[in-house]
Amino acid sequence: MWIFLGFTLTLGFAYTIYFSFNHGMSHSARGQQTRRMLFATIAAWLPMVAGWTLMPFVVGGAWMLTYPLLYHLTNRKVSPDYENYADTTFGIYLIGWLTTLTLLATLWPPLLALVGVVEFVLLLPVVFMWGYYIIYGVCVDSRGLLLVQETDLNEVFEFVRSFKWWSVLTAVMTVAMVLVGCIAGNTAINVEFAEEFPLMGLSRVVELILLFCYAMAVGWYLFGGRQGFVLRTGLLGLVRDVEEYMAEGKRYLSGRKRRIGSLQVKQRGVPYDKPHTILLVIGESASRDYMSAFSNYPHDTTPWMRIMTEDKAHTHIFKHAYSCTMHTVQVLEKALTEMNQYGAKGFEESCSIIDIAQALNYKVSWFSNQGHLGVFDTRVTILAGTCDQAKWTMQTPGVVQYDSSLLSFLNEIDGGCNNLVILHLLGSHFNFLNRYPNETHTVWGAPGVQDDVLNYENSLRFTDEVLQKAFEFCRDRLNLKAMVYCSDHATMPDRRRTPNFNGFRNMRIPLFVWTDDEFLLKHAERAAAMKHNAEQYFTNDLLYELMLGIFDVECNYFDEGSSLAYDHFRYKREDLLTFDGQRRVADDDELFVTPNY
Fold this sequence. Notes:
The protein is an alpha/beta fold. It has 19 helices and twelve strands.
């Protein structure tokens, strides 16, 4: 009787989750998945004829509920059609599989602790999904997993330190309690089932063989190879998407030789008299709303750029620039290549700024203060690897590296050849307090005191100083012809960063271009076009086209109408997109209210 009751409750719980947290399913889909869950419940309850235990229900139930519920809470108002059955079915199978492992382990009670560890490992993804939801208020998605994957060790330390000590302790204690609970839940409760194996007159040996075969078969079905049912669950499905994204990035290199072989580049204009340098500085998390060179911000956060903008002949600032998305790697894979929101070319098919510069016989140097952006190669590090030289600042865990440390790399540039120098700043990445030397560069607020808005302002001011020093070095020693500064994306220092879209303020970025007298003389059309387009709207996935305009080239991998350096730049505000094509720039009607000091 108790088996029938338990079977009914398990199936009822699964059906409640399925029908409550899924939208827009066809009648045939509902029928197919209800039959699937019925079969899974029968399979899960077969070993319980020999005995049952509580912990498998806890683990399986957590899997059945977590992703469908969190996805539903996140998307119920915006998505008309979604179906997350796999987590529910996977959880049902887990109940039977873990029950079988527990019954087998009771033959030698110390193995029960090992089963507890297995249950703990299976609960970690559940804990992660709930933790992510508590922090960000949304269900984890592929963007969130990419953000996790691209985070280096120092960023992990800074992220953890951004929370109150008691919240970090609570998180650690929660994980520890889950581990202790899994082990204790088996060793203290389940030993009593050791004598309950006799079933339907079968010998104990036969029953053990049947249970072992069941455990192996269901275990292989759930976790076996690249076809295991676990890979159909929500979280593991996202992991597979991220793996495919990374694999596509690696295919970029295999196709690069073919692209370069078909590349045709011809420089326009009169050649420069001497070897020269073009400097591209990629900022981080800089918002033009907070920059005095781009807005009427009450604090002078960018004094050097503000003064430079007074020289309208040489300096162009674009006050309507937007990021194409919200995360560094996904921005730069587009900003540095032909890939953008408006065309069909993928990353692996696209030429890069680096490819074009090298075809023009520039030596390309990449200097970064962003580490390797995670434990794996990302598309940014793949692009950096195609440069003639690529160097990163020393990334010692727990040790802050300021962007000023990049300036020493400039001494390694050979002024006797043409150079494209790319500096990748850490800029105003959270935690803002760690982005500038507190004792010497705190302009607003008190040194070392956490105040996110004031710390952010100080970080912008420090970035402005780094830009000035890089500019002056390249101008005085490397015959600088052009300098471009553009941030990857913006941020809102008064709000915690989230992987999901939460307003256009995260998209409003600075774009600054300086050119020297010789550029104005020999590439007058390009300079005139940039001045003409100063009030145009722009997204930074078109940075590739802007840079090719500054190189002033004819190229079979170049759409001139997408470049601010051409007077027939075709994009208007209503044409432009952001957040990977999911938001229209024309919908940005958010007012920015400056802090009241």
